[in-house]
Design goal:
alpha/beta; 5 helices; 194 residues; three-stranded mixed beta sheet
Amino acid sequence: MNNGRKPVGILAIQGDFAMHAKMLDHIATPWKLVKHAAELEGVSGLIMPGGESTTMLKFFANEDMGAAIKDFAAKGKPVFGTCAGAILLAKEVLNPPQEKLGLIDIAIERNAYGRQVDSSVRLGECPEIADRSVEMVFIRAPIIRRVGESVRVLGRCEGLPVLVEQGNILAATFHPELTEDETIHRYFLRKLSD
């Protein structure tokens, strides 16, 4: 599956990065943990995992990681954010407002599904990339409240957009890495180029 391509980077400063690594192992895709901005040079794309977005932002400030990710994306490299990763990629963050990278034209509300005890597994539809329902795990998940004109909605669950794309940026409000379903990761991998 590699075809001589650089490995996929997985942001490994906080959150469930290990589960993304496990999914990439499952689909035989080389990966590399990224903890410092300079390490982005050695990867073909970047996965930003779920976790705690405010904690990640503190690290971004100390490491210039935010600026490095913006530069990485500006070069056309694919970036995929799940849950907290999607929050960090958004243009607008609600509940409460916070710093963000502004790489995808969405407004996203933090923890909009409720507290940890309100976590759930649901089935959603991604008709452009899957001909069946896709299992989606929501953990203190955000809700996308606004989708910009140039953003494509690739997946919905119970009427809400949950998987969106704008150019080389892909964002999911759920955790595809916590299921056995490879659909979303395989779609992201198709966006990679040298």
